[in-house]
Amino acid sequence: MHYIVIGKDGKDSEAQDRRMSARPDHLQKMKDLKSEGHFVFAGALLDDAGEKMVGSAIVVEFDSESGLQSWLASEPYINGKVWENYEVHQFKVAQI
User: Fold this and answer.
1) To 10 degrees, what angle do helices 15-35 and 65-74 make?
2) Mind listing the pLDDT tens digit for each residue in 34-88?
3) What does the alpha-carbon distance between residue 56 and residue 19 come to, in Å, rounded to a whole number?
4) Are residues 38 and 60 in contact, defined by beta-carbon separation less than 8 angstroms?
5) Which of 4, 46, 75, 84 supports an S-S bond with 10, CB 3.0-4.6 Å?
6) Secondary structure, 3-state, 34-93
7) pLDDT of 4-18, one tens digit each?
8) Conformational region of residue 81, where left means phi above 0, alpha means psi within -120 to 50, and beta covers everything else
9) Domains of the chain
């Protein structure tokens, strides 16, 4: 099953610092997901000016809900309080 995770960063004055501090660990986690066959694609959400990262969109694939939950429990942007909130939705990748 594919899932899309949309995380929105906090808007407080320390939000960008938290993102940049957690970013190396987050990118390593994405590399780990890729090597394990769970990563589909991901990217940063940008502000209206297209300059500042304000969130993330990640599409992953897991055989079970428990696999998804295990990853979320270890995601640096969640544990580092980068994402003020996030949503998880089942996602169907178009076969074209």
Assistant:
1) 140
2) 999 999 999 999 999 999 999 999 999 999 999 999 999 999 999 999 999 999 9
3) 11
4) yes
5) 84
6) HHCCCEEEEEEEECCCCCCEEEEEEEEECCCHHHHHHHHHHCHHHHCCCEEEEEEEEECC
7) 999 999 999 999 999
8) left
9) 2-91 (3.30.70.1060)
